[in-house]
């Protein structure tokens, strides 16, 4: 009998386990909670019926959540806010940026921070990334930092931390050299529980800002955020600002509700377990796929082991955009698996492109044309996991 070609061998249709339908590439982690969260929320609802408290802006739940989160991150202060984007807006207001200020940031992110920044007329200086971590490349920061640099905004993009010590040190040294005060503010939207040199992300730079949106590693009923900082005067300023400015300052309502905080406390208790589950699933996926040609799989860094907010696969060797798109299309059409594909923000959003143009960032461009991220969710059962892994292998072998 004639030997089967690779294509025939691997083209066999896999049986899709339930749920039938499409599985989206961004992990909808807010779908992971149990009776503990539900009980906590019900308790707050019942207690808030007291006429003399109601839902009250200052609550034990908010305090407890902030204290627990600060402790978890090994940082002095945690300030609960309505979401990550608003949190960044608050920090920007506290910095009083001017036209001559320059802000260094990557072009690989969700658009939230660019929207906040575009309200100011400071100059945005885009910086390239490291292909292995998907985070801003510290060597590129060194090239772009100058006497006008006021702020650096790295993003912990996909489950590996930025090298915070290195970046903070670059800012410190440049500040000494230029006689300025360059601040670093980390976008930690996707980084709750992410490992950095034996502890958790949260104590870097001036502050770090987390998101508790439904897709994130920890959620507070689908929306929410937290700012962590060791800077006591910033913490005081932000606490006032989120509550219409306290007595003397400008402010707005950037608050989180106590119902959200009660949910968040329970989520924080399970965060490490959830992240461990993600790592297990990711490691099994890596074992399953690691003999395949033409792809590069995610690797850890010495300073940070991945907790896989995303599981990025990069096409390699002679493959590029054409092959990457073919893989993404086949996974969707043949198997119902929709992959997340990281986006160069200036290309993805016309509004940003119109105002800021498209900077030359060869690594960012390469990553956005070669990477695809199939879903990785702690709730995947073994059947679903195998289905996804075999589908990826089948598709890659059939290209
Ligand atoms: C990296 C990153 N930054 C910022 C945001 C914005 O977060 P939020 O929706 O909490 O404002 C997101 C959320 O999608 C994100 O992924």
List the helices and strands and how they pair.
Layout: H1 6-10, H2 35-47, H3 60-73, E1 77-81, H4 84-95, E2 102-106, H5 112-117, E3 123-127, H6 138-144, E4 149-152, H7 164-178, E5 183-187, E6 195-196, E7 199-200, E8 207-211, E9 225-229, H8 232-241, H9 258-289, E10 295-296, E11 313-315, H10 321-335, H11 345-348, H12 350-356, H13 362-370, E12 371-372, H14 382-398
Parallel strand pairs: 2-3, 2-4, 4-5, 5-8
Antiparallel strand pairs: 1-9, 6-7, 8-9, 10-11, 11-12
Bound molecules: pyridoxal-5'-phosphate (PLP).
Task: Describe this entry's structure for a reader.
The chain starts with 5 loop residues before the first helix and ends with a helix. α2 (35-47) runs antiparallel to α9, α9 (258-289) crosses α14 and α10 crosses α14 (382-398). With 399 residues, the chain is α/β, with parallel strands linked by helices. The longest helix is centred in the C-terminal third of the chain and has 32 residues, at 258-289. The protein has a 7-stranded mixed sheet, sandwiched between helices. A 3-stranded antiparallel sheet has the order 10-11-12. It contains 14 helices and 12 strands. The protein folds into 2 domains: 6-32 and 272-398, Aspartate Aminotransferase, domain 1 (Alpha-Beta Complex); 35-267, Aspartate Aminotransferase, domain 2, CATH 3.40.640. The protein has helices spanning 6-10, 35-47, 60-73, 84-95, 112-117, 138-144, 164-178, 232-241, 258-289, 321-335, 345-348, 350-356, 362-370, 382-398, and strands at residues 77-81, 102-106, 123-127, 149-152, 183-187, 195-196, 199-200, 207-211, 225-229, 295-296, 313-315, 371-372. The mean pLDDT is 93. Helix content is 42%, strand content 11%. β2, α5 (112-117) and β3 (123-127) form a beta-alpha-beta unit. The structure holds pyridoxal-5'-phosphate. Pyridoxal-5'-phosphate binds next to α4.
């Amino acid at each position: 009998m004639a030997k089967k070609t690779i294509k025939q061998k691997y083209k066999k249709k896999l049986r899709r386990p339930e749920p039938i339908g499409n599985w989206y590439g961004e992990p909808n982690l807010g779908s992971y909670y149990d009776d503990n969260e539900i009980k906590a929320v019900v308790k707050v609802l019942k207690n808030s019926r007291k006429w003399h408290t109601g839902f009250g802006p200052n609550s034990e739940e908010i305090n407890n959540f902030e204290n627990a989160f600060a402790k978890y991150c090994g940082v002095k202060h945690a300030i609960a806010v309505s979401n990550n984007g608003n949190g960044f807006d608050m920090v920007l207001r506290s910095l009083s940026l001017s036209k001559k200020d320059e802000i260094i940031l990557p072009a690989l992110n969700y658009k939230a921070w660019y929207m906040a920044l575009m309200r100011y007329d400071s100059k945005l200086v885009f910086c390239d990334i490291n292909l292995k971590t998907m985070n801003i490349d510290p060597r590129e920061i060194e090239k772009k930092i100058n006497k006008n640099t006021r702020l650096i905004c790295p993003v912990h993009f996909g489950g590996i931390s930025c090298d915070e010590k290195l970046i903070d040190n670059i800012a410190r040294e440049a500040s000494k050299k230029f006689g300025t005060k360059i601040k670093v503010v980390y976008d930690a939207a996707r980084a709750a529980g992410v490992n950095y040199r034996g502890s958790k992300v949260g104590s870097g730079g001036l502050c770090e800002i987390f998101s508790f949106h439904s897709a994130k590693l920890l959620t507070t009923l689908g929306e929410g955020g937290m700012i962590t900082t060791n800077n006591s005067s910033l913490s005081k300023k932000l606490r006032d600002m989120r509550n219409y400015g306290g007595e003397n300052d400008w402010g707005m309502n950037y608050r989180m509700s106590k119902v959200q905080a009660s949910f968040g406390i329970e989520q924080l208790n399970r965060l490490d377990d959830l992240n461990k589950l993600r790592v297990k699933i990711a490691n099994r996926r890596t074992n399953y796929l690691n003999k395949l040609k033409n792809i590069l799989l995610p690797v850890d860094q010495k300073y940070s082991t991945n907790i896989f907010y995303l599981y990025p696969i990069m096409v390699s060797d002679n493959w590029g955009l054409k092959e990457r798109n073919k893989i993404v299309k086949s996974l969707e059409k043949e198997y119902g698996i929709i992959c997340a594909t990281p986006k160069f923000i200036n290309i993805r959003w016309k509004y940003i492109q119109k105002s800021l143009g498209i900077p030359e960032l060869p690594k960012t461009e390469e990553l956005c044309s070669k990477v695809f991220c199939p879903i990785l969710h702690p709730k995947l059962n073994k059947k679903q996991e195998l289905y996804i892994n075999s589908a990826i292998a089948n598709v890659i072998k059939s290209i």
